[in-house]
Amino acid sequence: MGFSVVVLESDPRVAQSLAGGLSSHFHSVHLTRSGDELRERVAKHRPAVVILDMEYSRLTDVRNLHNDFPTLPIVCTHRIPDEELWTAALEAGASDVCPADDVQNVLTSVLRSMAVAKSSAA
Fold it and tell me: What are phi and psi of 92, to 5 degrees?
């Protein structure tokens, strides 16, 4: 059974770039355009990880998602992440925060977050 990933990314160019990088590691990549659509996809597909655009989402979205799906890794992206955002996102339940345009960094973080989630579930 292949893993899937759900991505909420406001910039279509970045979304396509992430989808391209992720598609070689995941059975399916679901791109979403809204928080409601993201939650629907997460509930339906039970992805291995979620990637959340912090320029589009709020910390409460991260917190609510983490509360509803506590074992689900959430990797946040931002055009220009700073330490304050990173700290706040981690406190809200995110696994990591990466620059949105650095696909390799996001991918590395996603795979690391999945490994951590899997080992803590074992």
Answer: -80, -10
